[in-house]
Specification:
Layout lengths: L1 E10 L2 H17 L4 H19 L5 E9 L3 E9 L8 H4 L4 E7 L2 E9 L8 H12 L6 H104 L9 H32 L7 E4 H15 L5 E5 L7 E4 L1 H17 L4 E9 L3 E8 L31 H11 L3 E7 L3 E9 L5
Parallel strand pairs: 7-9
Antiparallel strand pairs: 1-2, 2-3, 3-5, 4-5, 6-8, 9-10, 10-12, 11-12
Length: 442
Amino acid sequence: MTETVLLQLALRREQDVFTLRQRGREAATALGLEHQDQIRLATALSDVGRVLLARAPAVEVVFRVCRHPDRLRIDLAVDGSVERGPLQPAGRLVDGLEVVEHGKRTVVMLSRRLPVTGALTELRVDELRRALGMTAVASPLDELATQNEHLLAALEDVRRQRDRLTVLNDELEETNRGVMALYHQLNSELEETNRGVVALYAELDEKSSQLRAASEAKTRFLANVSHELRAPVTSVIGLIRMLSDPSSDPLTPAQQEQIELMRGSTSDLLTLVNDLLDLAKAESGRLQPDWQTVSLDRLFRQLRGTVRAILTNPDVELIVDEPGEDAWIESDEALLSQVLRNLLHNAVKFTEHGHVALHVRSDERNWMFTVADTGSGIPADEQERIFEEFVQLPSRHKVLGTGLGLPYARRLTGILGGSMDLDSQPGRGSEFTVTLPLVRQA
């Protein structure tokens, strides 16, 4: 770092402090510091000079210009040590204040960064040195008058800042009043909204109660109607069986045809009644599984025989896995059989050619039962509707049914602690996958 001495002077009496203040202000002006920074530097120099002159008979002062980075440094040296406490107020007026002891001498160094107005060349520093040397030293009275002018200017700045602060405070109070008014308005709107939400919740609770009551009434109605219809339908089936008995009076061909129509209609009606009764039991929550260890090998053999009995289309092949004698699951055998039987019967009804398959696989925690067919398939926008009661999708061929098999199978799957998923594309068939835990979940 390059240093160049700009000015030297000595303080030996009180009047010299005014000279130091004047020289500090002149040097700051020549080096391009702003007016406020000039006053701060001059004030700091006069404070430090007065403190040091009170503790030593003489104070040597050296003004230096330091480059890289550019700054003004003023060294005030005295004999003996100096307390740092009284110098702290002056330190807040400059960029740096250091107290360095060299043997029996102490140097107080004040520094101030210079504005970036161009490089401080040696020629420029020589010009500043000559300019400061040609400046006459003002009398203490003149310097005091200048200091008073600066003080008055500072007071005027303080007054203007106070006026601006007053205006800002007024604007802030006005803003605060607006904010408080907005807050009260928003708070009132929020309270009104909360009251509306509470009322909405109360209405929703009431609607939920009504919906539960309607669901319970529907379940009771289905159970009662199914139970009441079951006896007369069974009686009609018995009468038809008696009429068609070979030991009874012979029937004409027309009568036999009518009896067969009656037998088919009553059989369909009994199936519908039984499905309604099963659905009502499942919805009411009164259907409790009988948990036991179920052999999948035996279950699959039973399902294979049941489905073959209804599979009359020679163009459809039945494929059923053989899980093996060691394959088992903790479940309700009757309910699990009902789920898979419903899915298989549904696949048979909607498959004209190809195959209907029952596959099973395990991931050590769950069993995945998949019923796949090569039927007509189900559009994506209809795949959730088929699990609604009494919903039957249009088909190219007439399919008899109640629309209750899939909803009932899905409810039974949930009762057994599992889930049912569907993957289907029109023209490529459907896959229903039932996932059940290997062991009953607590």
